[in-house]
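Worked example 3 (structure in, sequence out).
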């Protein structure tokens, strides 16, 4: 959790240098600034999925990760339809939905797995 908050903080504090890593075009930087709120939000929604992937890899459990990808893709595809109403913000909404679905799915899978096979600390 601390690493996710740190990434968000760094993205917030260093917006212009971060964007300039990708382009020096002033017009493109203005357009990118319009979507920067989504960039700030993405680590929070998708970061937990990355952390949980490590948990499942360590437990040699690929099925929950696969299932989260399928659920995330379906969520992404449905939310992507919103581009008809909100334009490019719909693409970002779909990415956020993808990350949220994956994070939520893996969290619930980890809770079920933990109940079935509790980790014993010595």
């Amino acid at each position: 959790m601390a690493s996710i908050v740190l990434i968000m903080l760094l993205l917030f504090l260093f917006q212009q240098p971060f964007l300039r890593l990708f382009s020096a075009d002033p017009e493109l930087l203005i357009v990118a600034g319009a979507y920067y709120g989504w960039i700030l939000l993405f680590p929070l929604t998708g970061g937990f999925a990355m952390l949980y992937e490590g948990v499942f890899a360590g437990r040699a459990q690929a099925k929950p990760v696969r299932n989260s990808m399928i659920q995330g893709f379906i969520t992404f595809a449905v939310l992507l339809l919103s581009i008809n109403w909100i334009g490019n913000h719909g693409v970002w909404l779909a990415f956020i939905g993808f990350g949220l679905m994956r994070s939520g799915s893996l969290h619930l899978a980890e809770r079920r797995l933990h109940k079935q096979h509790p980790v014993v600390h010595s």
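Notes: Residues 2-116 form one domain. The chain has one domain: 2-116.
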